[in-house]
Amino acid sequence: MQMKRNVAVVTALFAAGITLAVLETEPVFGADSVPPLAAAKPVQLPPVVERTLPNGLRVVLLEDHLQPSLSVRLAIPAGATRDPQDKVGLADATAALLDQGTTARTEDKIADTIDGLGASLDASADSDYTFVSASGLANYADTLFDLMADITLRPTFPADEWERHRTRTLSGITADLANPSSVASSVLARRVFGAHPYGNYESGTPETLARITPADLKTFHDTYFVPNGAVLFLVGDITPAKAEELAKKYFGEWQKKDAPSAPAAPTSSAQAKNRVTILDRPGSEQTEIRIGSLVGSYADPDRTVVNVANAVLGGGGFEGRLIKEIRVKRGLTYGANSSFSRQKDAGIFTISTFTKPATVGEAVQIALDETMKLAKEGPTATELGERKTYLTGSFAVGVATAQGVLGRVVPAILYGRGASEIGEYVGKVEAVTPDSARDALKRAVPETGLEIVLVGDAKAIQEQVSKFGDVTVIAFEDLDLNAPNLLRAKTDTTAPFGESDEARTAGAKLLADTITAHGGDAFVNIKTLKISGTGEFSTPPQAGGLTIPLDSFTLTTATGSRSRLAANSGLGDLLFVVRGENKGGFAVFAGQTQELSADQVSNIEPTEFLRVAVLKKYPVAAVKDDSTEKTTDGKSLLAYEVRSEKGDVTRVFVESDTKRVRKLVTKRPRGTAATVFLDGYATPIKSILLPGNLRVQQNGTDVFKLTFTKIEIDTPAADALFEKP
Q: Of 651, 666, 664, nearest to 600 (Cα)?
């Protein structure tokens, strides 16, 4: 239990962004201990029965009576490629809210019905389609169809559910952006697909999610959820007659209409040289590496042959050439792999690995050399035979269940040549020769014009990789995954701030009154604070929502917006450091250190922000009075906003009578929101009034609750405190 809790905490520290690299090992067998695998047999699938309803809905059935189960999947051409560019995440959100209430059922009623059947029901969106899926015992087919039709045709998109989904998604985005591996893969997709929606970060960004409303979900649903072009797949214990009867009963009245066409397929930029993109994370102790290029769609006739070649290169686990050359022979990494991911209109070839900064150039060179070597010379007969056996064996296991068959049938019909592909797969793999594998890989992967993406410390790696192509360095805080050039639009910090001169004058007065309430010049001139106490740390909901008591903590802040929180808990020590001056920070937990960009960190002690605002003369403006904004103890609040040099806007709420700060809400250009509540104050120290406790939230979710037991002002704080231990 202790280990499980530690893992949950490590993966959930979105404020700290800690990740763990885990070394995986495979069992080693003697040469004679494992018998040779028998040759794979062709897979015999049930006959595929197809029907088309008058409204254009295709019904595809694979009848299988071996088990009394049924798996159903409805594919609707309403994927993320249909998102408006300023509202990316709309398709994902629409799918997520389908089962959160209909005109006939509440979310609880839907969930209770499914639980009572021991069945499953869910919806999701990918780039090209929205999928509504259900599975359970075939005896419940009528109820499963009823539920699927209800959430597909009659969702209500409740506003409160949308807000909950938005909050969960924002927490997930924060966690993703703290993970260099996720960032590297997302940046590669953007580079490879260019401005095409295939390159979008499909769950959306804080900026795009902020623009989406429940009305947008309804409009998206009304526009793109049409039967013509949709396909209803069934695999299991049901007859063709019954399948058609249920489809007509529950989806027959679905009205046919034309939807806007999907975007044209992406095209290659045909670059003469490789392009290197570095996402700069100063101080990173390892660098994520991605190398990729645009490839053909799922219907590419080379798909199967290329997959066999890729199994030799890096898609075959510890038997791939990449892992042997980069890890086994040279010890540069824990893992290296390659893959071909294909969608309806295009695909992407990817090499993935990571290494320490000093060996980035070497790792990239090996990956490129091994890829081009295989494309020129082809695999040996021995390694090709081993990989073919691995692929056909994995395939046979994969189609041993109805869900496995469904997973193969759906893309074959939506993207490929039809269900016949599945029965032909083993024969096609067996027919691959060293020469055909070589030629297919050569056609798929160009020698030049590759995209190379690195996430790490630019100063440590840029010189090593300049030989591979033109280099672009992007500061992490400037990154926008949904911008074609990956750059976030800059906030014009020279533009007038606030609605009017009156608002700016009133804001300046409120800030001055706030400073006076907290101690005037003595408050502004604080150099360091050392605060001790107890509290708790909470992980976000997607990591289990753990609340971890902090037995003790010491929070040290110093000029330059530097801060250091060192805490002790029953699950281990936590260290969270902000270096200040837009230099980012780092977090340490359970012996693991994670670098954080400037956009991912903020000073936990909020009064430091007020001092900086005065000393740096940040622009200030009062905002319209909101009479509903009150404290938990009933005090009325006034609000003003302060804009930093980075473009962050912090709304400061003060008590209308005393002008003491009670809440600060910071919205960064990336959209993340940090909220600090001050629910009590300590006894004044030398006329200086400071918080006695505070609560910190990230995107609406509690992170820290801290109670201060001791506060020391201007105690010397060595610079070394804010560097890595």
A: 666
